[in-house]
Model the fold of this input.
Amino acid sequence: MIGVATALMCALAGGAIWCLLSIYSGNTLAAFAFVVALAVVWTLRMHGYARRWRGALLAVFCVVLASWYAFYLQAVVRIAALLGIPIRAALVKMDPSMALDIAWASLRGWNLAIIACAAACALLGIMWRKPAARR
Done:
C-alpha cells in the first residue's frame, strides 16, 4: 500500500509542478505528462509493481490524475486572473463544474493525444522486462 500512496502523491505533486510551470511559460505543457509518467513508473517499479497489470493500470490512472489536476488548477488560475482575485479565493468561491469545463476545453486536441501517449508509455514502462544478460 505504501507504493500506491507514493505513486498517487507523485502524481498530485507532478500535477502541481506542471501547473506552476505552465503558468510561468504561458502554455499548457502537455508534454510534462511524460515527466510525471517517468516518476510514477519509477516509483511503482521500486515498490514491486513491475510487470503486473495492477501496477500498469495504477500507472495509467496516476498519469491521468496528474493531468486532470494540472488542467483543473490551470483553469482556476485563469478564472482568478480574469476576476482579479487571489487563487485561493477563486478555488473556494467558484463552482467546480465551471473549472472542469474550462479544463476540458484546454484538454482537447493535441493535449489529449500527448497525455494519452504518456499514459501508454507509463503502461509500457511498468510492463517492460529487462533483457537477459548475455554471457
The chain has six helices and no strands. The first helix runs from residue 2 to 25. The mean pLDDT is 92.
